[in-house]
């Protein structure tokens, strides 16, 4: 019988938590700093982080009561967390992302959901790089 806690079993839950948005204030900051973006199965918001904070991307999920009963909402969140975990390496910038899945995610084939999250992350990465270049050009480093 193999042990679940073996190094080959994947990332531990403490590693995964470093990539999550948890505080209400963080969610609010992302909402205020960005516009709502749309994809087929979800809407999303993102914001580049500046300063001495962690350089890793952080992702938050919101699944409201409109999405159904607790069992359905939890299933949507589990599926979304797995798709995010598989595609997180596509985000290399220090960015905060909030994903709002649509109800259709619950019946969607996982490979389609996985592809959709990858598409969203690629779009965020591209927009973030463009935004970062624009910010760098506006505030060039001064050499003394």
UniProtKB/TrEMBL annotation:
This molecule's function is given as: RNaseP catalyzes the removal of the 5'-leader sequence from pre-tRNA to produce the mature 5'-terminus. It can also cleave other RNA substrates such as 4.5S RNA. The protein component plays an auxiliary but essential role in vivo by binding to the 5'-leader sequence and broadening the substrate specificity of the ribozyme.
Q: Which domain of life is it from?
A: Bacteria
What are its GO biological-process terms?
tRNA 5'-leader removal
Q: Which GO terms describe its cellular component?
A: ribonuclease P complex
Would I find rRNA processing among this entry's keywords? no
Q: Which family does it belong to?
A: Belongs to the RnpA family.
User: Record's Gene3D superfamilies?
Assistant: 3.30.230.10
The main enzyme category here is hydrolase
PROSITE patterns given in the database record:
RIBONUCLEASE_P (PS00648)
Q: What is this protein called?
A: Ribonuclease P protein component
Query: One GO molecular function term?
Result: tRNA binding
EC numbers listed for it are 3.1.26.5
The subunit structure is:
Consists of a catalytic RNA component (M1 or rnpB) and a protein subunit.
From the UniProt record, list the reaction(s) this protein catalyses: Endonucleolytic cleavage of RNA, removing 5'-extranucleotides from tRNA precursor
Swiss-Prot/TrEMBL keywords: Endonuclease, Hydrolase, Nuclease, RNA-binding, tRNA processing
Please verify whether the record's keywords include Isomerase: no
């Amino acid at each position: 019988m193999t042990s679940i806690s073996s190094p080959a079993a994947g990332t531990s839950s403490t590693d995964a938590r470093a990539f999550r948005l948890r505080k209400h204030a963080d969610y609010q900051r992302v909402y205020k700093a960005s516009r709502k973006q749309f994809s087929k199965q979800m809407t999303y918001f993102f914001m580049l982080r500046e300063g001495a904070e962690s350089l890793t991307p952080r992702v938050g999920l919101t699944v409201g009561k409109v999405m159904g009963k607790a069992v359905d909402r939890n299933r949507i969140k589990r599926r979304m967390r797995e798709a995010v975990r598989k595609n997180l390496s596509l985000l290399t910038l220090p960015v905060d992302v909030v994903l709002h899945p649509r109800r259709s995610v619950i019946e969607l084939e996982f490979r389609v959901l996985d592809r959709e999250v990858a598409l969203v992350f690629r779009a965020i990465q591209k927009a973030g790089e463009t935004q970062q270049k624009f910010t760098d050009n506006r505030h060039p480093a001064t050499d003394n």
